[in-house]
Amino acid sequence: MTMFSFGQPDGGIVQTAYVVPNLSAAIETWIASLGVGPWFIAEHFKGTAMHYRGKPTTVDVSIGMAFAGHMCIELVTQHDDQPSVFQDVVSARGFGFHHWGIGTRHFDNLYAAQSAAGYEVLFTDRVPGGGRIAYFDSTSRLPGMTELIEVTEGVEALFQRFYQSSIDWDGSDPVRPFF
């Protein structure tokens, strides 16, 4: 089994994600209640090729990422009311758990497997580090969506930096820039 440098297997769940109404307040809660941090923030995050249900989108979100052990936690706040994978979940059941992120170096194979399983692709993009992402609607069988994350060298380096910062974190400098 091939492992990523941040301690998760290729093809395994590397991230759990939540949609929150206020990113700063949610981060404060995760730090105070669970000791998770430091958090890396991307305000008004824009990918380079965002598509929702096959059409280009400019949805405005901010994200925060931190590690709890080897698991990446992602918090997402949407700032506008454009249709999106985040609005889909908030409209259906409110804020809270949104998706699992599966990290892989075999993106095309897992993309085909998700499609063959009957999951509709809802959102695609390219992210910092050059990787592709795709959100699949797996809610007919699972209590959330499934995101595929292509782990390129750049994506792995980003996750590794966040992971390394969490080891022996002493609570100082709790919010840091994503880039």
What does this structure look like?
With 179 residues, the protein is α+β, with helices and mostly antiparallel strands. It has a single domain (13-170), classed as 2,3-Dihydroxybiphenyl 1,2-Dioxygenase, domain 1 (Roll). 25% of the residues lie in helices and 36% in strands. It has helices at 23-34, 85-93, 107-116, 153-166, and strands at residues 13-19, 39-45, 51-52, 55-56, 61-68, 71-78, 96-104, 120-126, 132-137, 145-150, 175-177. Strands 4-3-8-9-10-7-1-6-5-2-11 form an eleven-stranded mixed sheet. β3 (51-52) and β4 (55-56) form a beta hairpin. The model has no long low-confidence stretch (mean pLDDT 96).
Q: Could you give the topology of this structure?
A:
Layout: E1 13-19, H1 23-34, E2 39-45, E3 51-52, E4 55-56, E5 61-68, E6 71-78, H2 85-93, E7 96-104, H3 107-116, E8 120-126, E9 132-137, E10 145-150, H4 153-166, E11 175-177
Parallel strand pairs: 1-6, 2-11, 7-10
Antiparallel strand pairs: 1-7, 2-5, 3-4, 3-8, 5-6, 8-9, 9-10
What letter string, H or E per element, gives the SSE order? EHEEEEEHEHEEEHE
How many helices? The count is 4
CATH architecture term = Roll
Bin the helical content. Answer: 25-40%
Beginning-to-end CA distance, first to last residue:
30 Å
Query: What radius of gyration results from the CA coordinates?
Result: 15 Å
Overall pLDDT: 96
| Gross morphology | globular
β-strand amount: 35-45%
Number of strands: 11
Write down the CATH topology.
2,3-Dihydroxybiphenyl 1,2-Dioxygenase, domain 1
